[in-house]
């Protein structure tokens, strides 16, 4: 899941400064779980904006706002309300905002900030996090990722900042390298501490160019909503 | 005699450190240079210490060279990627800077620009490897340099750790730093000769000079603050009591005397001393005289 939290209301009101009317959208997926943009929060936002003097022309919380085909079908009964609005406020992660912006020919504003989960993918109980670095280092570190466990993502070992096993950034956060040391010790692998590590290859951490050219990365065929502006050319197609 | 020749010929070396200030006023830097030149062998110039934005360390180290005080240019990996680090190193050599102390650096979140991006493209060990490679005439990608430096690279190590993992990680990393090219070490401040002796017994086989760190105590509160907040510093209770017992007008004298006594006690165990005076830079010659240096 993608974690999002609502922006401060002052920031949202500032976006809507020149707009008299607004249509609000939410999502019953991650945004609902995050408590930032489910039906309940959409309703609350409607009341707050009305109180602040804005006209809310309509609202809609879609099952998964990241599915553009779904947005279009779910909005069918709301076309008039949508047309009456100066802009659309979307209470979801950045993907939902981008999907609505691509599907609707109106100014679209984000009502939430998407929170960086530091390598967490999905929501589950556990401390394992993957950095998606493209150069897995777990062989050297007892199966604990130094990129996510260490605040500085150090590959060569601990800095001098740990105190009583805790990171200098917070007394609630374990020093990642002390966790690695204890794990290696338990496994009889302390010799791994002498491994000389290369600096990270940041080229591998960036999404690959060939990946960015595929539909998987999000460069889909043009959305088929008439109101939407002309989509950019698909570079993947041009290559062929 | 340069820091390098002193340490390489086995003579006891003395360094101190000062940080550039926030702003363009360089009076204090120039005053410190005048007081310290000819007294200490070299002076560390800190690199945006504690992640607080200040005048560039590279420029301040250049001012030291111009003023006749040999600098030890501290270089952290917090603010520069590998391109900028290598470029600044080449620049440092051109400006006559020979000693570089490679550090990972504090997190920006702890400083006065907590919103800043912490770079950490390299860390202290890989920065040392990069310095070694530049000394060989190549950059990190293997491209040949036109004109190469001959830096004397150093690193830091923490003597006091309060967990087994931390102690062992410090020693393991010290070995990696040596493998990557560190030619000398400065330690975090030490106040307990017994734990320093224990530490030195473990690391003397590495045959790399170690300069013991010391911060003169300013008052009891200062010592307690460091104990609570600075990783790797442990001021024993008897020293804190000595500071508490001193009358207000004698505190400075007591703090300086304690530092001098500790240097005397630990001098035979190591190859140099690094005095971090934190605002008392002009008192360094006094500490040295009391310590018999």
What's the helix and strand layout?
The complex is a heterodimer of chains A (240) and B (293).
Chain A: E1 4-6, H1 9-15, E2 21-27, H2 30-34, H3 39-51, E3 55-62, H4 68-74, H5 79-84, E4 87-90, H6 94-103, E5 108-110, E6 112-114, H7 146-149, H8 176-186, H9 202-205, H10 209-212, H11 235-239
Parallel strand pairs in A: 2-3, 2-4, 4-5
Antiparallel strand pairs in A: 1-6
Chain B: H1 3-8, E1 13-18, H2 27-36, E2 42-45, H3 57-67, E3 71-76, H4 82-94, E4 99-103, H5 124-136, E5 152-157, H6 164-180, E6 184-189, H7 193-203, E7 210-214, H8 220-229, H9 237-245, H10 251-266, E8 272-275, H11 284-290
Parallel strand pairs in B: 1-2, 1-8, 2-3, 3-4, 4-5, 5-6, 6-7, 7-8
Helix pairs in contact in B: 2-3, 4-5, 5-6, 8-9, 9-10, 10-11
Overview of the structural elements:
The complex is a heterodimer of chains A (240) and B (293). Chain A has 240 residues and is of the alpha/beta class. Chain A folds into 2 domains: 4-116, Rossmann fold (3-Layer(aba) Sandwich); 146-203, no CATH class. Chain A has helices spanning 9-15, 30-34, 39-51, 68-74, 79-84, 94-103, 146-149, 176-186, 202-205, 209-212, 235-239; strands at residues 4-6, 21-27, 55-62, 87-90, 108-110, 112-114. The longest helix of chain A has 13 residues, at 39-51. Chain B has helices at residues 3-8, 27-36, 57-67, 82-94, 124-136, 164-180, 193-203, 220-229, 237-245, 251-266, 284-290; strands spanning 13-18, 42-45, 71-76, 99-103, 152-157, 184-189, 210-214, 272-275. The model of chain B has no long low-confidence stretch (mean pLDDT 96). Chain B has a single domain (3-285), classed as TIM Barrel (Alpha-Beta Barrel), CATH 3.20.20. With 293 residues, chain B is of the alpha/beta class. Chain B is globular, with a radius of gyration of 18 Å. Chains A and B meet through α8 of A and α5 and α6 of B.
